[in-house]
Structures are given as structure tokens and as C-alpha cells.
Amino acid sequence: MNKKTKGTHVKVNYDLLENTKLNSTQKIFISYIIGWQQNGLVCRETNRNLALKFGMQPGGIRSVLKSLNTYDFFKSESINYDKNTSTSGHQIKVDVDKLKIFLNSTAIKEKQDSTSGKSTQEILENSNLEANENIIKYKDGDTIQLSSLMIDLDFDEQQIEKFKKYFKTEEVIFEKFAEYFFGLVLGQKRQDIGIIISEEQQGKLSDMFANQ
Fold first, then answer.
1. Nearest CA among 163, 160, 136, 154 for reference residue 201
2. Looking at the chain, which terminus has fewer C-beta neighbours within 10 angstroms, N or C?
3. How far apart are CA 173 and CA 177, in angstroms?
């Protein structure tokens, strides 16, 4: 492994990087072991070799292994004990599936903790604010792609085809689309026109109007 890893870098998964329960050394150590496994190898190293690679003392490596062994996704076993030097190597493995479960559950708990103490109104307002920031805004004269816009508005394929049949083109002026859209809203209150537009869809389109 030494020849293969010389000059390479340890890759840290973003989900692992964002985790706040593990410290930086633990994250790099986990990523180092996963690197072995991704190359089809099992990490078997001594404290001395690991200490040299991580710029630590052997005692520091023992502490890292001890702390990580408390997690079910990590397993370090002593092998090849030498009575003369009182040293041994380690066979170290990371269960990637269990690690993913750990990271997901931790992320969920952190999100719950971040919202605890906030009122329902505050949570809803923050959610609505985030949603509005992601909405594409259009001016009256903008040309829109009909199918793309209607997908954003949660229309199904059959309903999209009915709009296409009316406009006879995929590219439509936003103002014309909005006029037809809200005309259907008024029309559906009087008769069945085959397209039912929900209040949620009406709200979404209203949010798409840019300040002129």
C-alpha cells in the first residue's frame, strides 16, 4: 500500500466532512481506511507506521482507535503481537453502509436540534423563505419553455399536452401563459374544462412574477 499511496491524497466524503460529532482527526482516519478498501485492500498497520503517516505520537493513534471503536461502523483488531518489542499491528475496517446510516441519523438529529425552541410559525416562515429563493422569476415579456414551466407547476403530462394544443408552440410569452392560466382558474368554477388547477399551483405561479 505504501507504494500505491505515495503522492496521493486522502479523499473525505462531504457528508462525513459536515458531521459535527466526529473530530477532524477521526474524519481523516476514517477516510484513510476507506481509501484502502476502495483499492480492494485491508488496512494492516502498526501504531508506529500510522503515527508517522498522521504526524502523531503512537499514543495519539491508540486514542483515535479507542474512540472510533466505540462506533459500530469502525472495527480495529490487534494482530501480530511482538513480545520482544511489546508492539502489535492493527487490522482496521470501516463498514461503509453503517457509516452512512450514522451520518444520516446524526444529520437528522442536528436538524431537529436546530429547530427545537422555534415556534411553528418561525419554521414555516423560514421554509417559505428558502422555497421562494429557489423560484425562477419571470417578467411579462419573457419567453418561457411551456413544458419546463408546467413541470415546475406540478402539471402532469396530459395537462401539459392540452396547454400545448392551445398555444401550438413550446415557446410562449409569460404574460400570455399567465392570462390563459388564470382564465382557466375562473373557468373551472363555472364548468368542467378538463384541467383542474389547485390553489397551490395558483400560488406557485403568482410567486413567479418578477417585480417589473
1. 154
2. C
3. 6
